[in-house]
Amino acid sequence: MGNMYWVAYRDEEETEFIWSFDFSDESFKEICFCPPSYDIGHLSSFNGDSLSMLQQD
Question: Which NCBIfam families does the record associate with it (predicted)?
Fold first, then answer.
């Protein structure tokens, strides 16, 4: 059924991370931390099971 990904921000730690929702078992998962960024990035999946993130500062 697939997954949905987005970049989330944790206020108390001031960190960004990739957050996922798995539709097959209806659960949220933290994927990994992201390097600090002040500009907009682009998050995309490809080949069915790969995830890429483009950031330009």
Answer: F_box_assoc_1
Q: Which two structure tokens, joined as six digits, stand for 11?
A: 């206020």
Digit-coded pLDDT (tens) for 1-57: 578 888 888 887 778 888 889 888 999 998 887 776 666 667 787 776 777 877 776
Contact 16, 51 (CB under 8 A): no
Q: Alpha-carbon distance 26 to 36, whole Å?
A: 29
pLDDT value for 52: 81
**Distant-in-sequence, close-in-space partners of 37: CB < 8 Å, separation ≥ 6:** 16, 55, 57
CB atoms within 10 A of CB 34: 17
